[in-house]
Amino acid sequence: MSKSSNKKVFALGGIVVILVIGLFAWNHFRQAKEPSRELVIATNPVFRNILQVTAKEAEKEGVKVKLVEFSDWNTPNITLNHGDIDANFFQHQPFLTNAIKEGGYKIKPFAAGAASRVGLYSKKYTSLDALPNKARVAIPNDPVNGGRALLLLNEAKLIQLKDPTNHLSTLRDITSNPKDLQFIEMEGPQTARAVDDVDLAFTYPHYLKLSKTIEPEKALYLNKEEDKRYAILFVVRDDFKDPDGQLKKFVDIYQHSPVVKDALAKEIGPTLWYPGW
């Protein structure tokens, strides 16, 4: 090959290198200038305010979040599984495990949020001992939260379960019911409102805050141990990618921002929530 040909090859190679470097630099510059994508997170009314506070804090760091609200405990997983949202935030691990089993969803935990204590509440009686025979007791009708209610009733010594460690215990697993309690099963979020009508209700502090039926601190009985299994989770699809780290940033703000911690204390109760991470 002649010297002139070699010069042309080298010159062409140099142009290609410059073009590649230029394209890389332009792409990097374009990505830096482009606004970050908007995260879409589904939740329900009891966690809305906390996530709104988190979203406002996240926006200060360039993380844009759109919250979508559902009132039930099924649609958020269906919507996530269809890929219409990036994540949801409303369920703990036992509920998620059962939902995946029953619905065949391709979803998984991304990170943990706060957990809260659960309690037994009454407007008619001031102690568990005062409950009459055949007292009406409201519990959730889904397998996981219904099981959690029975575990708490067992812990409070109102009933005895065949296996006090089985979080999927059902009414059929009750081996002793000295007061002949009458159980009324209903949608989980409704148990907070049922406090007005039944003798005793198992429910959650944040649902009581929303329904304004009774102060969450006025439980006749609260669970004793902090069980992180019941921390509310940020859940995503199995194939979820977070290339720009937006969801990771949002979760970090949720977990560590003093402003969010103040919101958790306000929405749940300063002594009724604890970190699930």
From TrEMBL:
It is found in: Membrane. It is a lipid-anchor. Keywords: Lipoprotein, Membrane, Palmitate, Signal, Transmembrane, Transmembrane helix. The chain crosses the membrane at residues 9-29. The keyword DNA-binding does not apply. It holds the Pfam family Lipoprotein_9. PANTHER family: D-METHIONINE-BINDING LIPOPROTEIN METQ (PTHR30429), D-METHIONINE-BINDING LIPOPROTEIN METQ-RELATED (PTHR30429:SF1). Belongs to the NlpA lipoprotein family. This is D-methionine transport system substrate-binding protein. It comes from Acinetobacter apis.
